[in-house]
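Chapter review: from sequence to fold.
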Amino acid sequence: MNVQIVDALRFGDEGKASCLLWNSDCKQLSAEDLLPILGYCSTAPKPLFAMEVWKFMDEKNIKVNQNCSTLMLLSLIKSGYLDQALNWLKLLGKSHQTKPHLSIFNAFLRSCNQNSDLANECLQLMDEQFIGRSEETYGELLKLAVQQHNLVAVNEIWEEYRKYYTPRLVCIHKFICAFSKLGDSRSAYDTLQYMIKATCPAAAVKVPWKQRRYASRLDIPIPSINQHSISLGSGVAGDDSVESVPRSSVSDAELKADTILSNCDGKFGENDCVFPTMPQEVSLQENQFCRENVVLNSSSEVQYGSMNPVICGSTNVSPVQWGLSERLKKLLVLSFNNVIQACGQSEDCEMAESLLQQMTDLGLKPSKNTYRGLLRAVVSVKGITWGMQVVEAMKMKKLALDNALLSIVAVGYSKCLELDLAEGMLNQLDDNSPKYIYPFNYLLAACEIQDEPERAIRVFEKIKHLNIKPNIRTYELLFSLLGKVNAPYTKGNMLSQIHVSKRIQAVEMDMAKNEIQHSAKSLENLMRVLGAEGLIREMIHYLDVAEHYVTGNDASAFTAMYNTVLHELVETKESYKAAEIFRKMKLFKIPCTTMTYNIMIHCCSMTRCYRSACSLLAMMLRDGLQPVIQTFTSLIETVAGQNFLEALYFLDQASSAGIKSDVVLYNAILEKAYFKRRLDILELIIERMHLEKVQPDPTTCRYALCAYIYHGFHSTAVEALQVLSIWMISQDEDKQQEFRSKYEDLVQSEDPEVEHQIVEIFKDSKEYLAVALLNLRWCALMGVSLSWLPAESPWARRLAGSCGKTEY
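The token string follows.
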């Protein structure tokens, strides 16, 4: 009967199997006779037929034993009916005859698949039924904690596991992998040192081999203590690039079921119920390391950063005398690699270098994975120059650079804006090896900083040639790079707008091909470049489209996009449309930030609507936002053309609010004073700038020079230009004399190539210095005697004397 029913189930004829079961002679049947059927249901799995067998036993008054309940639970667990399995675990646990073994709970935990609620209910049920925890239980809990990125749970599992068991080396390695994957390089380092102690013969000699062997393979369940129970939840994500040791596919629950079936009677053949076999994992099988396991004192610690090769308590044991097996060396190298890669992720260069030195002291040979983590840490902390020393060390050891290492070097060059070298590294990528998108994203970001869209096109073509799938970050950068043709140098025209539209359409088609949707950042970048090219209608269209891509809860993303649209509308002088968009923000209750109000107040300065600017300032204060220096600058630009007293009032208000004024704020008043031909206001503001140690800029010099020339005060204009140029270099008299000794001959030289030498200063990002020297040279060509001490200038003394007497 067993053979016939199993054959029917194997061929999918469950109706025939059911008929055979219910038509059988139940008077002579016992629970042991039905074990082969339940065994097949647990391996197939066939949970529904297993429940039918259970129903058959209940109706025919066949007494259920523990073996039957074990196989029935396995069929439910393997088929994914975890809620039903949990209910049966609770029900069967009430009877001593059907109480599940620990192996069943371990199988249940293994099948939870990141479901922390089910795992916690299982752990609670184990405590209620006084079910202990074996080493496999801790292994399954560790796997669940890593899947959920719960670093706190991993630490608790590690502490409780060490409390009841002597950890095996492979188990220690798994915890090292877990800590490394979750980004806790400190705990991974400590666990690695714990593992290294376990390999020291000086500690192992004191414990007989058999005693160590059985101590490390303890199978007696330890009752769990409530205060040490471990619950699983959500945590912080880690890096997915860390290696892990493959585990055996045979669980203790399956071995239990195999034992049950091997002891049952009948003609049930060996091939009728097949269980998974033990895989041949030669290098990392746990039971092959039992000879190296030792009983350790967990209270001993190893200091971080130690370069001492003797870390196992004996100062006279060399690595050669340890006699480490090749399998053990391989496991140690894997553990070192995991921790070093975690150091690369956490940018802990010191720890990575310390671990590499420790590997050398232990006689272990670093691999490419070792140098990958070290290179990432060195490049992120010390820069690409130090990183290339790691590359040279690899070449000396005849280790070729793979795609991962080339990518790390390319990222280092991209960060320091060495675009040619970064692009050269990416051109060396092997087409047949795994490739990564992140180095290309870094290079595209560097292209955006250097404003090289043509190079970005080459990089994008390289991505498509290598068949690398871009991510949303790639498209965010492409929209920002390829969406600009004339901006920011000239305004968009019809030709550039057509070109931009074609580029954007091509990028969006590629996004659809790779099944990637817009993000808030990609839409924001897209709207920015459309506004810069003058495509206002298209920009507003994408603002409406953004509602389908951005969730309603992400208010900050909507605010950023609206701010971008408002800024571009104001820059293109579309004040009416900007006011409409702002009203839409208020209508839809989209939060306004300080930037929002600053943009709109700046819009009022362009339309010269002071009343609206004051209304916006009041709304800003009602929203709990404090004005910043940009706010006062826009307010002064709005009111200065009509009332200088109000402008000076806002200047005092900014000072009273503790806001440090800058040259842009003062230039806003100087501009209006120049256009209104108010030399008194201009001189007042310049002297106030000098008193507050605000250095003038070329715009300040232009307004002063043009204002005096307009009134016919040519000598005063040249004198003011000379003083302002020296103040633009420095307002410290000692530094003024230092620059005099360095540049006086250059300014007064008659060599026609002098201007070219001064212009070269711009390349060093010393714009103010170069402009000041050109101004001084122009004054010298006018025949004016140069004075490098502004305090001796009659114009500067007159400003200082009249500033205190001016009332406003």
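Two observations follow directly from the output. Confidence is low (pLDDT under 50) at residues 201-229, 233-250, 261-321, 804-808. The chain is about 65% helix and 0% strand.
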